[in-house]
Every structure is written in C-alpha cells, then in structure tokens.
Amino acid sequence: MYKIIGTDQKEYGPVTSDQLKQWIAQGRINAQTKVQADAGEWKTLGEFPELADALGNRVPPVASGAPRPFPASSQPAKTSGLAITSLVLGICGFFTCGITALIGLILGIVAMGRVRKSNGALSGHGIALAGTIVSAVFLLMLPMSVAMFLPALAKAKQRALTIQCVNNMRQLARGARIYSQDHQNHFPPAATWCDAVKPEVNADKVFKCPAGDVNDRCDYGYNSQLDGLEEKNIDPNTVLFFESDPGWNVSGGAERMLGQSRHGRTFVVAFADGHVEQLTADRLTQLRWNP
C-alpha cells in the first residue's frame, strides 16, 4: 500500500499500486510525486521499479520549483448532507419563527469543519457557508421582527376584547328589553337589575368585561334613572348600561362610569333602544342620562 503527497502538501492514501498506475495514466501524478510505501521512506515515484512500466521507463525532467500534478481522487467528492440541511433549515427559519434557523446555524458551522478536514472527500463548503449566513441573518433580524410584531398583536388582542365587550352589552340590553316585555313594559329595578336580567341572558360571562379581572362578577352598571320606568316614557338614546367598577347590581349615573378605559381609548355604552356604541372620552359628556 502507498501514500502520496499532493500539490496541496496533504497526504492521500493508503492506495494500491493499481490505483497509482491509474493516476499515472490520467496524468494526475508523475515521476516526481513523493510516494511512501508501507510506512517506509518518502521517495519520488520514479524510484519505485514496480511503477516504472506505468511511467514508460522514463523519468521526465521537472524544472525546479514547478508544481507537481494534483493527485485527484478516483471518485468525485461527495456533497456534505449537513451543508445542504443547513441551508434548507436557514431558509425555513422565515416560516418557523427562527427555530430551524438556529439549528441551521449550528449545522452549517459543523459542516464547514467537516469539509475542511475531509481532504477533498467532501464538498459543499460554499453551501454550508450560505446556510450559516442565512441562518445568522435571520436570527439577528428576529428580535427586530418581534419588536414590530408585538404592538400589532397587542392591538389585535385589544380589538378582540372590545368586540366581546360590545357583544356582552348588546346581550344585556336585549335581556333588559325582554324583561320589560314580561313586566308590562317596565324596565328592571335599579337595585336588583343583575338578578332581574340574568334569567334572560342565561350566561354569567355576559356580565364580565373580557378586559377586566377574571374574578369580577360584573363589570357593568345600570342607569339608575331608568329604575322601573315604562319603556314608552324613555328616550331611545338614553344610556342603559355602561362600563363601571366591578360589583353586582351596580347602578347610578355618569359618576359611576370608569375613569379609565379598559379598551385603550374607547368606552362601551348600551342605549335604551338596544344599540351599543364605542365612544371616546370627549363624547361621554354628551351622553343622555335623563330619560
């Protein structure tokens, strides 16, 4: 068995004499190539009689300092699977919130190390480098993307909670009107309005604002000036329900409304005709409380 030193000053082998003869025939090595047989001394290939026939019994002169022919492998280098995987995972990081990009970065670094140490048996250094760069760039951009995404997410969540609060108010207003129909068109009493409306809405969660404390029993108040009034004597635009501090059967007027909105800058108000509006703070002063 033999070893040789290539133009890159790296050792190749061990290989058989038949492999060496094949490389000679292909012009990949010549008489000046350094060869070691069975861990012996390093000699030029032309000094081995058993290879003389392959060289044509001639030792061509080589000018001083001239490069030796490169001893290419008899098989093409195999592309590193880790390198390919690194690039794929780096690209997929855009669809997996960076999870695969982190793995791609690690595999890319490992793949480049293996390619360097393979003495030409593996290729794909460029692919591994690309995978490493793509993964690293995505991971560097991830915090910025998250910073941009979080406000939008918070806004969407707040909007969803507001819509649910509006639906709650709408059901409470409907429940109050059903109560009125069942009680000679008189609205619920202020002191016990929650108890009066509860059978008509048939769901405790309707009394709770989704943006409020989960332990609150009720987050809405009732306009006390509507206490037991007949529906025909009430202006349709009179406040019926409003957002208030938590409490069961809370009633009153503008003084019982929340001082700070649970929904950013809007307040949810239900009116005597059953419609519900989202109002800004400056419009609260224009509300009609006297029926």
Molecular structure report:
- The strands form three sheets. The chain has a five-stranded mixed sheet.
- The chain contains six helices and eleven strands.
- The protein starts with a strand and ends in a 7-residue tail after the last helix.
- The chain folds into three domains: 1-74, Dna Ligase, domain 1; 78-147; 153-284.
- It has helices spanning 17-25, 81-92, 99-117, 125-182, 193-201, 281-284, and strands at 2-5, 11-15, 34-37, 42-44, 78-79, 122-123, 220-223, 239-243, 251-252, 266-271, 276-280.
- Helix 2 packs parallel to helix 4 (125-182) and helix 3 packs antiparallel against helix 4.
- The model is unreliable at 57-68 (pLDDT under 50).
- Helices cover 38% and strands 14% of the residues.
- It is of the alpha+beta class and 291 residues long.
Provide a short characterization of the protein structure.
With 291 residues, this protein is an alpha+beta fold. It has six helices and eleven strands. The protein has helices at 17-25, 81-92, 99-117, 125-182, 193-201, 281-284; strands spanning 2-5, 11-15, 34-37, 42-44, 78-79, 122-123, 220-223, 239-243, 251-252, 266-271, 276-280.
